[in-house]
Amino acid sequence: MAVKIDTSTFMTEEEIQEALNEMEQDELLNTGPILVRSAEDSIIRVSFHDRHTIYLKNHPKVNPQDYLANIKTMIRIRT
User: Fold this and answer.
1) Hey, where are the domains in the chain?
2) Whole-model pTM?
């Protein structure tokens, strides 16, 4: 049985980038860059914006509106 995904509520890539840019500008929501070990064993910095963009691109079935709302909620609860 195929799973039907409602794409009518999905955001465009432009809308996602705009929402992430707004979050990155908000001092309460921007958690800053993280350090990630690359395949070559070097450590690189990944920005807040890039980290969440990469996640959404790697998980196309995730609803970006829900994902971004969850990020906001988790960060606010943590702070």
Assistant:
1) 10-78
2) 0.72
